[in-house]
Amino acid sequence: MATSRPDGEQLDPVRTGFLSAAFLPCESIDLEATLDGGQAFRWWREGEGFRGVVGRQAYRLSAAEAGIRIETADGSPLRDAELAGLHRYLALDYDLESLRTRYGGDPCIGSALRGWPGLRVLRQDRWECLVAFICSSISSIPRIKLNVGSIAAAYGDRIGPGPRDFAFPPPDRLAAAGETALRGLGLGFRARCVAHAAESIVNGNLDLEAVYEMPYEAALGALTNLDGVGEKVADCVLAFAFDKPQAFPIDRWVKRALEEWYGAPANLSNGKTAAWARAKFGADGAYVQQYLFHRQRITSRMAPSRRANEFTEKSATRSFVQA
Q1: What is the sign, positive or negative, of the torsion defined by CA atoms of 28, 34, 36, 41?
Q2: Which residues of the chain have pLDDT under 70?
Q3: HSE, side-chain direction, 13 A CA sphere, residue 58
C-alpha cells in the first residue's frame, strides 16, 4: 500500500528505477559490516548489494573483483566528483593494512580484523549523522532506521524512484516542522531533541562546520551542549562524521569487551571508560571501537560452539571485497 508525505506525494513501494553503473577500485571493504552495522541507518539490502542515499543521490553498492560496483538509482552517469565523494564517504583512503599490522596479534581486535577485514569507519554527512544518533537514544538499529527514514521521506527532497530515495532534509525544514510534527513520525521524546538541534543550527548557536575544525575535546563539548546528546551520542557523531579518530563511543558491548580483554576497571562510568580507552588506543580509537562493537554484537548471538570458527569462515558469503 502506498503511503504519503505531508505535501501529499504518494510513495509507491514497488518503484526501483533504472541503474547506471560505474566501478570504484579499493583494497578491501566489507559492505555489510560497514553500511549496515550501526554506523549509518539509510542502507538496505537490495539484490547482491546495498541501496542507500549519500548526499543528493541514491546508489546501489555491490562487491566486485578488487572494488565496488556503483549504480545510480536515477540512471544518471556517475561523475568524477561523485566517485570522489563516495571514496571519501567509504573511507577507502584509510590504511586498513596498517591497522592489521598494529593489532594482528591482539587476541580480541586481531580476531575481529580477521573476521571482518574490510570493516571501515564511514565519513557521513554531519547533520544527518547527528540526527541519527539523537534518534539512537534508548533504541535499536531497526527502529533508528525507521525513524531516520521517516524523517527523510516526510521532509526531504525526492531524488530517485524508490520508496526510500530521499535526500535528508536540512535543519531549517526540521526546525520549521517542530517537535509535534516530528513526534507524529514516531520519534517520541527524541522529537524534542531533534527539533532543538535543528533550531540551534538555524539560530546560529551551533555551526557544524566550525565543530568539525575544533580539536576533539572542544567538539565533544559543543555537541554535548545540545539536548539529548550525551558523551556516547557525541562520540558516535564525532567518529562517524567529524573525522575525530580518537572518539571512542562506549555502550554495553564495548565496555564489556574493554573489561574482559583489556582490564578496564569495571567500576568506571561510561565517560571515564571512554577516557581510559582514548588513552590506551589514541588515534586508533574509532576503528578499535567499531571492531569491538561489531565483534561483540555479532558473537553475542552465536552459540558458544560456533564462536571460535566464525572469524575464519566469514567472508565467502558476504558483500566483501579483498584485493
Answers
A1: negative
A2: 1-20, 301-323
A3: 27
CA–CA separation, 307 vs 302, rounded Å?
6
Task: Please state the φ and ψ torsions of residue 322, each to the nearest 5 degrees.
Answer: -135, 120
**DSSP codes joined into one string, 133-147:** HHTTTT--HHHHHHH
- Identify which of 253, 235, 254, 255 has the alpha carbon closest to the alpha carbon of residue 245: 235
Contact 208, 130 (CB under 8 A): yes
Q: pLDDT digits over 74-116, tens only?
A: 888 888 999 999 999 999 999 999 999 999 999 999 999 999 9
Residue type, 214: M
User: Cβ(160)–Cβ(167) under 8 Å?
Assistant: no
Residue 227: all three cell numbers together: 539536548
- CA dihedral angle for residue 292, residue 297, residue 303, residue 304, rounded to 10 degrees: 20
Please tell me the predicted confidence (pLDDT) of residue 75.
Answer: 86
Residue 160 in contact with residue 278, Cβ under 8 Å?
Answer: no
Distances (CA, A) of 157 to 15, 89, 160, 202, 232: 16, 21, 9, 19, 30
How would you classify the pairing of strands 10-11 and 3-4? antiparallel
Specify whether the CB–CB gap between 9 and 15 falls below 8 A.
no
Task: Give CA–CA dist 102/222, Å, rounded.
Answer: 32
Which three three-digit cell numbers place residue 204? 546560529
- Give how far Cα 172 sits from Cα of 146, 194, 287, Å: 21, 12, 33
The candidate with the shortest Cα–Cα distance to 113, out of 92, 125, 124, 99, is 99
Q: Domains for the chain: give ranges and CATH numbers.
A: 17-92 (3.30.310.40), 95-120+245-309 (1.10.1670.10), 126-241 (1.10.340.30)
pLDDT tens track for 243-268: 999 999 999 989 999 999 999 999 99
pLDDT at 229: 97
